[in-house]
Fold this protein.
Amino acid sequence: MGGASRSEKQRRQAANQRLAAAGITPKQSGPSGGTRIALIVVAAVVVVAGVIGYFVIHNRQSTTPNYAVAANGTVVTAGKTDAPVTVDVYEDYLCPVCERFESRYADDVTAALNDGKIKVNYHSTAILDSLTTPPGYSTLAANAALCAVPAGIWPAYHKALYDQQPAERSAGLTAQQLVDIGTEAGATSPDWASCVTGNGNAAAITAATKAAIANPALLTNGQFGTPTILVDGKKIDLNDSKWLSNAIADK
Amino acid sequence: MERGRILDVIGTLARLGLAAVWLVSGAVKAADPDQTYIAVRAYDVLPSDVVPVVATVLPWLELALGVLLLVGLGTRAVAVLSALVLVVFVAGVVQAWARGLSIDCGCFGGGGQVAPDATAYGTEVLRDVGFLLLAGWLIVRPRTLFALDGRLESRPQVRSGERN
């Protein structure tokens, strides 16, 4: 390899000598024009990547939730009951794509809820119970989220469950950790801790999960998965990043 | 064929090979941004604010490196950048391995949590080291055939009548 670059150097020297013989002085200072163009292009790529990153980070301003929340069985309804658009969210707190959905759209959904443009039914489903050791984190977290409604911390707790989502195939979070997250989020009621550790909604969550799996309107390619999102009863394509603005614009 | 010419051909194959790696991996990642986000998050290294940034920028950075290598523009600089990115990838995989996470690297799509017996850290690191060798060759000897670099550099020499 060293030999090759030496021979190239010799070749270039020979060329320069011929140029000199012809009375032409080759430019020696700094990188040649071609190399400079190439370096400018590469630098531009790096700068563009940095600028995109900067804007991605700064476009994430969080919206403070100020919408009403009510629980009905295992369904938490957020927003005004007479809102023109109804969104149904079937989620599992262990599911990475649900976390992605939350992190990607939470601000837009919160803004639409605050403005009374939509109401959202959050369906607590637990299809990933077997993916923690010990099993059952999905149900435990779904139960805790239902407890967060009477405790008055649902929006903050729902967000916190995703911010602190444990990995699939990990131990999950313990009931005590779920209690602590709620206490940090402002749960003060004496029932909060016992509601979370008691896991009293577990049977209802299991039943709701079975019902969801059996509901043909919720299936994607013949299978139920989370998240499944409906707008006015129709399942949306999760790859459609404009689903919410389209849903609101149609009204 | 003289020795320099053979080395040019090897360098060209390295350049086009590395270009193919970046173009394929970048395209697969760009086509499924949600999966890319999940793959980046599964490494459990970056703060949650930074995960979406990396997941958004990375596919396009890979595609840009691929295009620059394909046309052979700024080959040495692009090879240095490629090597840096690959070293970061290897570091990410090794830390996941060392910490006992069970994830797929998401190098060519996919990614995220997998069953503990479905990890392939050794293969993934070995593959990245292979790509690093390609980048290393181009850093040491960026001269290749069919490259814009060569065209841009050789212009004055051709005009001066080197072919006399």
